[in-house]
Design a protein that fits this description.
single chain; alpha/beta; six-stranded mixed β-sheet; 13 helices; about 15% strand
């Protein structure tokens, strides 16, 4: 054999490497030892993170880059640990409509760390047209022949970056169309939710990935109670699947139904990744009733100066082999330090009391000592961590109950402008005494006192609206609208700048009330009051109320589009979200199609699954625009009794079952079924 030198170039995710073969090709030497990493054929390695909140305070001179630096660290950690994929538990973005800078930074980081030639070593067994039915490209991104994906990212949406607008798009949908993120767990129905898992297999390990994006807690709570949430399972070899569930809801109780109890979840789950809660409780805790484990990674940035945010931030490295798991917590070094202390003035009678002369100066000097002590602690803690930002977040909560007076917090905070990252709100005054003022009428409500109560930290606008009407007298109670509906409309106005949300809700409810009274033949004011009382009680906290709010919001969004104010998400006309079911079926799951490149990627094996689900209900018809009575013109309900003509509606969307999309040419089927205990 003739002597020759052959150099084989191997493309690596980290850097190009070469393997030079000696004469006669009898031996070889690896010049780049990182080309062939040691991997386990049966172990999934998954990086878990939630609530990254990209873009939070991005215009702040000190804290503007915090979220981007931490996201860079998270992705770098995933690449260094050679994970199979990244699982995000919602709220990747802080704003519903992130800025161009925020989107640009996110896309750049995902392209930097998640694209490359590293082979993907797991297969997707489920019907991807079902898993990613809301995408224009309904298959996992690493199987797209036009993309080189080395680390797939799977994510559900949160309450900050949830779908909105006439087409129901969110920022994750932009990343999905760009092939950077696999957006799953989205449900469009407000009547029933079927959670179909993404079925993955690596060697002998089978993983069922469940997910559900953020839904208003009260609505989801009610759907769980009414058995309207179904989690589909593989019918074959159920005991061989590791079941991983991702959810983005309230875990701690904020009200009677404003959270999701762990007991609502199915007991066949193995691990639940809980997003939305910002306190880092990443060590898995066992639910003794349902016998699964729950991990709460928490946020990677402090978005509020509360005790839960002061816990050290971590992400998780999950290893799954068969039905066994191991979760390793990894500390984040780029997170800005946050220290918080509580000071109760009445607990220091030896230092000061309200009757002392110049007591405010004594209190202020004592508070300054506390703040300086926290700053010194932060400096000691930062030693040896060059990635940690220099200026920490400091919060001193001062309880001045018992006759003390608050000093000037702004002037006090300015003393530390060069030492802390939050010089405007270092000190925060609170009172333990609860607000028990008797509200006699709308003109007597002290919103300043209501908002200044310490419990309002983190309180939602809709909660404040509900609290106001619950404490108000009957003369200022709502009659046509409900507290929950008005609260949601105000929340849309505040969070998403839906300027017409409140007006459209009132218009829609007034039109519906007029038609109802006409059909009932009600004429006198007394009969109107009785009828409205019955109608109001029957629809409180029901799906009908959710439907009314959603229709009103859709009308508000349609008006905004007509004025040209919604060009950043979509330029298309107003379309019902449920109308996607009438579109042409998506193309079948595609393989890499790379031919001679020999990438060694995990190929979809052609396995699909059948859903034992009943056909989905038809999409709710959307009414076309018609002339309406303006409720702001001072007319009472008797004057406005003449209702506008009945508006024509679009035809309902035809029901469709997953079974309609199964091709008879596939030889392997992985069947899913609905558990017998679901009605």
């Amino acid at each position: 054999m003739q002597n020759c030198n052959v150099t084989l170039v191997v493309r690596s995710a980290s850097r190009p490497g070469k393997i030079q073969l000696s004469p006669c090709i009898q031996s070889f030497v690896i010049l780049d030892p990182g080309v062939f990493p040691t991997v386990s054929r049966d172990t999934f390695k998954i990086l878990i993170a939630t609530d990254i909140h990209l873009g939070y305070l991005e215009k702040d001179a000190v804290r503007g880059n915090d979220t981007f630096n931490t996201f860079d660290e998270i992705l770098k950690c995933a690449k260094q640990n050679q994970v199979d994929f990244i699982l995000l538990g919602g709220d990747l973005f802080h704003e519903n409509k992130p800025s161009r800078r925020c989107l640009h930074s996110c896309i750049s980081l995902l392209r930097k760390y998640c694209m490359g030639d590293t082979p993907i070593l797991f297969d997707v067994l489920s019907d991807q047209a079902v898993n990613f039915s809301n995408s224009k490209f309904p298959w996992v991104n690493y199987q797209d022949e036009n993309l080189n994906i080395s680390i797939p990212v799977f994510s559900v949406h949160g309450n900050h970056d949830d779908p909105t607008g006439a087409d129901g798009l969110c920022a994750l949908d932009l990343l999905s169309s760009a092939g950077l993120v696999n957006h799953f767990g989205r449900s469009q129905s407000v009547e029933r939710i079927e959670i179909s898992p993404v079925l993955l297999q690596k060697g002998s390990t089978k993983l069922a990935l469940y997910g559900i994006g953020s839904i208003p807690d009260e609505r989801l709570y009610r759907m769980f109670v009414n058995n309207q949430v179904t989690m589909l399972r593989p019918k074959e070899d159920q005991d061989q699947w590791f079941n991983l569930f991702t959810i983005h809801q309230n875990r701690s109780k904020h009200g009677a139904t404003n959270y999701i109890p762990e007991q609502f979840l199915d007991d066949f789950l193995d691990l639940v990744v809980w997003g939305h809660e910002h306190e880092c409780l990443i060590n898995p805790s066992r639910n003794e009733q349902r016998l699964f484990y729950v991990t709460q990674p928490g946020s990677s940035v402090a978005t509020s100066l509360s005790p839960g945010e002061a816990v050290k931030k971590h992400i998780g490295l999950l290893r799954v082999k068969g039905r066994k798991m191991n979760l390793q917590k990894i500390p984040l070094h780029t997170v800005r330090q946050f220290f918080i202390q509580d000071l109760v003035l009445s607990e220091h009678p030896d230092l000061f009391n309200p009757d002392m002369p110049k007591v405010n100066q004594r209190v202020e000097a004592f508070c300054q000592e506390k703040v300086e002590a926290m700053i010194e602690e932060a400096e000691r803690d930062r030693l040896g961590n060059p990635l940690t930002p220099e200026k920490p977040l400091i919060r001193l909560r001062v309880d001045y109950s018992g006759g003390f007076e608050a000093f000037n917090a702004t002037r006090f905070s300015q003393k530390f402008v060069e030492q802390v990252a939050n010089p405007k709100d270092v000190v925060h005054f609170i009172r333990q005494k609860e607000y028990k003022a008797k509200v006699k009428g709308e003109e007597d409500v002290d919103f300043g006192q209501l908002l200044s109560h310490s419990s309002t930290e983190g309180l939602r606008v809709e909660d404040l609206v509900k609290e106001y009407f619950l404490t108000a007298e009957k003369t200022v109670q709502l009659s046509l609208l409900t507290e929950q509906g008005m609260g949601k409309a105000v929340q849309e106005y505040v969070d998403k700048e839906e300027k017409d949300a409140i007006e459209e809700l009132i218009r829609y409810q007034l039109e519906k009330t007029q038609r109802h009274l006409q059909q009932r033949g009600v004429l006198t004011e007394e009969e109107i009051d009785q009828e409205e009382g019955r109608n109001d009680k029957s629809k409180k906290n029901t799906a009908e109320e959710d439907e009314e709010v959603q229709v009103a919001l859709n009308r508000a969004k349609a008006h905004r589009i007509e004025r040209g104010e919604d060009l950043d998400l979509s330029d298309e006309p107003d379309v019902s979200m449920d109308s996607d079911e009438d579109s042409a079926p998506p193309p079948p799951t595609r393989g890499r199609g790379r031919g001679g490149r020999g990438r060694g990627r995990g190929q979809t094996t052609g396995k699909l699954y059948l859903c034992a689900a009943e056909p989905k209900p038809a999409g709710r018809a959307r009414s076309q625009k018609a002339s309406v009575v303006n409720p702001t013109q001072g007319r009472n309900i008797m004057d406005a009794f003449q209702a506008p003509p009945q508006r024509p509606s679009r035809g309902a969307v035809a029901a469709k079952s997953y079974t309609d999309e199964v091709s008879p040419s596939h030889s392997h089927l992985c069947v899913l079924y609905r558990p017998s205990y679901w009605s």
